[in-house]
Amino acid sequence: MLDSILNVFATAWYANGAIRVFGDGLLISAFVLAVFFLFDRLLRAQLSTQSQHLVILGGFVSVLLGLVMSQTQLSSTGGAGGAPALVTLIVRPGAIEAAGLDWSVLLLVLYLVPVFLLLSRLLMGLWQLHRVRAFSTSVEDDKILDEVASLQRKLQIARKVSVHTSALIQSPVSFGALRPLVLLPTEALHWPKHTLRHVLAHELSHVQRGDWLSKVFCYALASVLWLNPLCWRLLKRLDASAESACDMQAAALEDDNMNYASTLLEVARCCQQHGTPPLLFAQTMLESSTLETRIVHLLEGKIMQTKELKKERRNVLYTLALLSSMLILALANTQIVSAQPSGDGVENRGEFYPIENVVPMYPTVAAAEGIEGWVQVKFTVGIDGLVVADSVEVVEAEPAVVFNRSAIAAAKQFRFTQYAPDGFPVMIPNVQYVFRYQLSAD
Predict the structure, then answer these.
(1) Could you tell me the CATH number of the domain that includes residue 359?
(2) Do strands 283-284 and 354-356 pair parallel, antiparallel, or not at all (unpaired)?
(3) What is this structure's pTM?
(4) Rounded distance between C-alpha atoms, residue 229 and residue 30, angstroms
(5) Which range marks the domain in which residue 103 is found?
(6) Could you read off the pLDDT of 114-129 as tens digits, one per residue?
(7) Would residue 49 count as lying in a domain?
């Protein structure tokens, strides 16, 4: 039973390029994110939350680069190449016809349905943010705007940041890349000055760090690779570390962790009575599942000076660049998975098997006049199992010319198993095939 399932999966992998791309992505993400997950766990106590966020984001970026490099390497070598494979799937030739194309399509659909649903959720969230922005009210209070301008100078934010209020939110949020927006609950206009200053500092820290764009990017990548649980585990860590990093940055502006922790509790009490659901894909200041951890971190953590933070971030970036380069270089020179037919009879050039046979079109004129015949063609099969289009030519035909064009068109669409006598696929020239054109008795 297990052997049959593995053979079906191997055949589907062999026959469908889209499955290979998604499968490679899952395996690459599992390998790369496992490395970054361990890196984060081992050094979490020594690194600031800003650097922890960099490590996790670096993992997602490395997954994307690794997948691009891996697919580029495979494309440049015709889909197989001479690179060694980490995993080799063996396809039994007898099962190819029964399990190939139908299972490939079914597996692909089963994988793509959750991808579609998750990406639809992202689009719905972005649309929701657009609508909330459209129905929000711009803050006109000069004191608040002056506070925002002052914080922007301290945080070195050159872009224009809008500040609005809305009755549709339960917590201060920020979102937007080109037109960043800090959105406050309507009652925030009546909060004490120090509370509002802390809230604005937190949200502007998100803008300065580009956290919203990072969140959307990582969610989109996790949606495509939804089967990998590490994607979702690290996505939660990404959000938690971003919130904690902005807490520390906002507290550092006044060099007072204790007062900022009190602000978090105060704002949480004010927003608890708000019955509206949280916005999807916005940087929400009050995430109930992480609030307690953030407060503990504030009370126990020390405020790092700007020079210390810059030095630590620089060292972390150098380390991440080196680690990512090594991983990507290894992936670029290694096939993740290869699928090959079993070795039974593969030494005989005539015994490799078609995965896709195409029935040629019967010429209309020949059918109308009752003409039957046959065409013998020859062609070259590439290392990827596809027929080299320019290589197809007619060897012999009876009657001459009548069926040639139909036979050539059909032969170009054939797909075969790879011929790999030494473990590395090779091209096979002079493969011959006979098409027979016969009319039914009726």
Answers:
(1) 3.30.2420.10
(2) unpaired
(3) 0.71
(4) 9
(5) 2-119+325-341
(6) 999 999 999 999 999 9
(7) yes
